Amino acid sequence: MEQDEILKKYSGEWILLFNDEIVDHSMNLEDMLRIVDEKYPVEKFPANSIKISKVLSGSIHLH
Questions:
Q1: Per residue of the chain (63 residues), what is the pLDDT tens digit?
Q2: Helix (H), strand (E) at residue 31
Q3: Which residue, 11, 32, 44, 55, has most beta carbons within 10 Å?
Q4: Are 53 and 13 in contact (CB under 8 A)?
Q5: What percent helix, strand, coil does the chain show, rounded to 5?
């Protein structure tokens, strides 16, 4: 499966969680990474308190 097909099949929105609370969201992963670098620098915040996850849109069928 090509990269474009995978992205279409699993479209959705990226969310940024800090201490398990949603603090930001974007359709673009690069935006999320930039925000993490700006708001939550590694030297000030423990890495395990920051998570980026994708919320899928549409119907998901598991086998």
A1: 677 776 677 788 999 999 999 999 999 999 999 999 999 998 899 888 999 999 988 766 666
A2: helix 29-39
A3: 32
A4: no
A5: 35, 30, 35
